[in-house]
Amino acid sequence: MDQYIGTPLEVRSDKDAGLFQVSRRVFTDPEILAREHEKLFQRCWLYLGHDSELSEPGSFLTRTVAGRDFIFNRNSQGKVNCFYNLCTHRGGRVCREKSGKASVFQCFYHGWVFGSDGGLRVIPQEGAYPEGYKNDSRGLVHVPRLEQYRGFFFINLDANAMSLSDYLAGAKEYIDNIVDQSEIGMAIMPGGQNFQVDANWKLWHENGMDPFHVQSVHSTYFEYAADATKAGTDRANAQGVSTAEFDTKASAEVMMAGRYKALMQTKTKFAFDLGNGHMAYDYPSNHGRPFAQWHPTWDPKYKAELDRVYQKAVDRVGPERTKKMAHFDHHILIFPNLAIVDNHGIMIRTYFSKKPAEMLVQSWTIAPKEESPEIRKLRLFSYMDFLGPAGFGTPDDVEAIEAAQRGYKGAEDYGGWNDISAGVAPKDPMTFVKHGDEGRMRVFWTKWQEYMSS
Ligand code: FES
Ligand SMILES: [Fe+2]
């Protein structure tokens, strides 16, 4: 029997019929978006920024999360804060810079001045107010909750929310595997990418979990990778560098040979429900990884340094964790709108919609602080080459989800449902046991309907 979930019908499932579907209205209906803003974004932990972005006392940056403007700073005493970027006088924007260092912030509207601890310091027309008017109650307003896990700061607009540590649940192990790629700490690389995509925010999150789009949407990349691997193998062999473990004679063999094949056999499962709507998948990597896997597509001059980084990690965290961290790609989707992708580099990405058919995407990349200049350069190139807004991966994904969003315009006329049924009741239960099926996406949608209905 059908089980309808949501108010009104947004997600429906029927296990006996092998069915799980999501109404296309969730991507187009302004009322549903308004409800998401209230039910999800005012209750979930949302990524704000990283400790390394506030390198010294007084460091600050301004950031938009869930449509709200914040000041994220380290005050003069070294304490990290997150204030609404909103003047307590008449709502002016207190800080208009993207980042910098400041012991005070002066609102540009009428000049009230606030300390880096948020306290109100100066009212230019103070004589117009009673004695004691300039007091703590008129300081900048702190976000209700600000917590961090290993340098990753999150905010919550609900003062009564569970702790960040409880919320992250199984995702913490994956964050550990990012952070422990460094001996001395990870640092966000200067800059980042902000761009708009003409699609609903959930389409991007869903795409990040979608196992079935990869071969078709990213076919250009796989063709390029096969050619580059072949050319790189010839180059390496000409220099006397062995590529035996990659066995790269032909593209089909690239996929299923050598170390890659061996790694495939080390695990029985690659996709994981991490709890609280988060999920991850780990996949043996068949390309170069800045931490710490040389591959024939990369110049052999990088091999010795990457091998050294690998060995140092073995000494630090042991061989098993190092193998997992260096030879596997990791996609971590943290509910509701954060993706951490560790493959050709490490991408941290959030997405948020103010209108149903648009989203603002914000992306950063993070790297070990001690990385050599050569590997850093290689990392940044590799990251932009695949994960950048004009890389091999991102534009293909954008094209796919924008096209779907345009299609939903037509679906507004007759309703319609997206089908996310693969794996609900498979006739061959072994088909996708390793790689995961659309159950990855159902992890998200099940939690989504839970928040939206409560
Ligand atoms: S609104 Fe900020 S000083 Fe008036
Ligand atoms: Fe993709």
Strand content: 15-25%
From the spread of the alpha carbons, the general shape counts as globular
Main sheet: strands, sense, barrel: 8 strands, antiparallel
Average predicted confidence as pLDDT: 91
Structure summary, number of beta strands:
22
Instruction: Please give the share of residues in helix.
Output: 25-40%
The CATH topology assignment of the largest domain is Naphthalene 1,2-dioxygenase Alpha Subunit, Chain A, domain 1
What is the number of domains? 2
CATH architecture of the largest domain: Alpha-Beta Complex
Q: Which hetero compounds are present in the coordinates?
A: FE2/S2 (inorganic) cluster, fe (ii) ion
How far the N terminus sits from the C terminus, by CA atoms, comes to 23 Å
Tell me the name of the CATH class of the largest domain. Alpha Beta
* CATH superfamily membership of the largest domain: Naphthalene 1,2-dioxygenase Alpha Subunit, Chain A, domain 1
Please report the number of helical segments.
Answer: 13
Helix and strand content put the structural class at: alpha+beta
**Radius of gyration from the CA trace?**
24 Å
Residue windows where pLDDT falls under 50 for at least 5 positions: 249-256
Which key features would you list for this structure?
454 residues; alpha+beta; Rieske Iron-sulfur Protein; Naphthalene 1,2-dioxygenase Alpha Subunit, Chain A, domain 1; 2 domains; eight-stranded antiparallel β-sheet; four-stranded antiparallel β-sheet; 13 helices; 32% helix; binds FE2/S2 (inorganic) cluster; binds fe (ii) ion
